[in-house]
Amino acid sequence: MDPLFVLLLGVVIVFAGILFFKLHPFFTLIIAAMAVAAFTSTDMIATFWMEAGESPEAAQKLASSPFGLRVATAFGVTCGKIGIVICMASIIGKCLLDSGAAMRIVRTILNKLGEKNAPAAMGASGFFLGIPVFFDTVFYLLVPLAKALAASTKRNYGLYVLAIIAGGTIAHSQIPPTPGPLFVAEQLGIDIGVMMLSGIIVGGIAAGSGVLYALWINKHHPIPLREDELGTDHPTQKWEEIKDSDLPNFWLSVTPILLPLILLSGKTIVTGVASSSGIELPVWLNGAIQWLGDKNVALTIAASVALVTLYLVKKQTGVKTAMESALSSGGIVLMITCAGGAFGGMLQQSGIRGVVEQFGVTDGIWFLPMAFLLTAMIRTVQGSATVAMITSVGILAPMATTGQLDFHPLYLAMVIGFGSKPVPWMNDSGFWIIGKMSGMTVKETLANFSVMATLMAVVGLIVSVIASEVIPLK
């Protein structure tokens, strides 16, 4: 079967299942993966495996295996790569919220920057907490603070809300261990530490552009503080009722976030410097660096610290409840992500690389904008940023894994993340969460959130393209 037909079949199933039939993304992605696997010719599959280094006999055996088994194998491979990381990140996020550590971090940032710099504090808090905590939870946590600040100052409510969104949404699409960027990094073979550092740097620039837009629109079209329509049973934080003495100290609170960043990026930096300088590290030191710098180990250590923090505040009962809740929510995310891995794996076996090669755009000037537009189209049509990233990288990964790009795959990963931002509208659950929780009308949500998200995405694309030309890293 023609690879282009197989690609279109898979994408149509994803769109139709999520957009029209309102099916769960896990089920939809598995159905799409099975359809792609069933319609892919054995010759295409055998060619894929031979290019991956398998012998002709082994490749033919893999190509002849049942399509359900191939889907299940790709699902399991993805789970093996990111399963522990996603579950540990879920535990970290839940412990930060339940122990009060997240609130301690936000209060410390706000106290250091002061009320005058409250928008920057809101943006930094959203960005920082958005690394281990899912965006909707970050928004639930911080919106009451934005309301309290606006009630106190009698102004800038919309600015505070948009600053939170700017930081939180960019972290959600650029910095592992958030599922989307974690999955993209694994699919493209990018070191997690490198992905985290680049996400913080380039994502910070994009988030800064969002805050600038928030300042502009707040000046010309301010949003008043209204009674909000929650539309959810999620509990809001009562900031004024919580005393600082009841919260863990700042450094203990921030350790579960900083520790993975230090361990993962530290491994990358130390080994890179040693290699470039011709220094041979002692065996014991190299072993320790490799062990501590493993993503599964680093996130497990961080989760352990988060659990200790929670135990000090709420004892055994709080720890048990938090872990059950974290693993329940994290399990759903993991199932969706692994289903996306199965879908992407089947697309790669279908010969989709040849379809992409026909466009003749493998340099940063053209390939990266194409990847951005592809991801943005998928996001706009079906509404989910994570599904958009999963689908897009499944189509584009063959170009990166075969070394045909003129730049490091890191830039492709960043562009896919930025492409998952535009254009949020009424088919996106996050659109309604933001609108209802903040009290914005639909028109205001479109003019504020949707426009800002698109602006940040374009700024991120421009920075990524320029960086791929100036510092190709290849």
What does this structure look like?
The protein has 474 residues and is an all-alpha fold. It has one domain. It contains 20 helices and no strands.
Topology, pairings included?
Elements: H1 3-20, H2 25-39, H3 42-51, H4 56-64, H5 67-99, H6 101-113, H7 118-129, H8 135-153, H9 157-174, H10 179-188, H11 192-220, H12 250-277, H13 283-292, H14 295-349, H15 352-357, H16 364-382, H17 385-401, H18 409-419, H19 429-438, H20 442-470
Helix pairs in contact: 1-2, 2-5, 2-14, 3-4, 5-10, 5-14, 6-7, 6-12, 7-8, 7-9, 7-11, 8-9, 8-19, 9-11, 9-20, 10-14, 10-17, 10-18, 11-12, 11-20, 12-13, 12-14, 14-17, 16-17, 16-18, 16-20, 17-18, 18-20, 19-20
Order of helices and strands: HHHHHHHHHHHHHHHHHHHH
Overall number of structural domains: 1
Gross morphology is globular
Share of helical residues: over 70%
How is the main sheet built? none
Distance between the termini: 35 Å
Mean pLDDT: 86
Question: Which consecutive residue ranges, at least 5 long each, have pLDDT under 50?
Answer: 229-236
Structural classification: mainly alpha
Task: Note the total helix count.
Answer: 20
SS elements, strand count = 0
Question: How much strand content do the residues show?
Answer: under 5%
Task: Write a compact overview of the structure shown.
With 474 residues, the chain is mostly helical. It is built from 20 helices and no strands.
Main attributes of the structure:
single chain; 78% helix; 20 helices; mainly alpha; 474 residues
